[in-house]
Design a protein that fits this description.
Layout (H helix, E strand, L loop, with lengths): L2 E5 L6 H9 L3 E6 L12 E4 L5 H11 L3 E3 L7 H10 L7 H7 L2 H10 L13 H9 L1
Parallel strand pairs: 1-2, 1-4, 2-3
Helix pairs in contact: 2-3, 3-4
């Protein structure tokens, strides 16, 4: 039986967990226990933060997953790519996952490749935020 790791276990990931089970996959969910509605639906549940990529990798490597994914969770993207890359699974690169989930880095890449995007800046402290809000 093929095994899939799903990062996140909230109501947002529920349709994915149900579809994976319908397809006959063994489902392994990783998420905090609070709000984990998929906890009792997945075949296996691990109460681990979705950003703890090394712990998730160790478990996925041990159980021999065939794939790793999530839906409706930008915060899970770097972990998915990190684990997939280390296990030689199909995925975006970890570097690209970090870029696409960091709005500042993403917009710098847009500008580098002449893709239209809104003006932006970064704020490093509360004073900067107050100045930006007054503009």
């Amino acid at each position: 039986m093929k095994k899939i790791a799903i990062i996140g276990a909230s109501y947002l990931q529920l349709p994915l967990v149900l579809k994976a089970k319908e397809l006959g996959l063994e489902v392994h969910c990783f998420a905090w226990e609070i709000g984990a509605v998929c906890k009792n639906i997945a075949d296996f549940f691990y109460p681990i933060s979705v950003i703890d990529k090394d712990k998730i990798f160790d478990i996925c490597n041990k159980i021999g997953i065939s794939g790793i994914t999530s839906i409706a969770s930008d915060i899970a993207v770097p972990t998915i790519s990190y684990v997939a890359e280390k296990l030689d699974l199909v995925s975006n690169t970890y570097k690209d996952a970090l870029t696409t989930t960091n709005k500042y880095e993403m917009r710098k890449i847009f500008i580098k490749h002449n893709v239209a995007c809104p003006q932006f800046t970064t704020a490093k402290d509360n004073y900067s935020i107050m100045v930006l809000n007054s503009l």
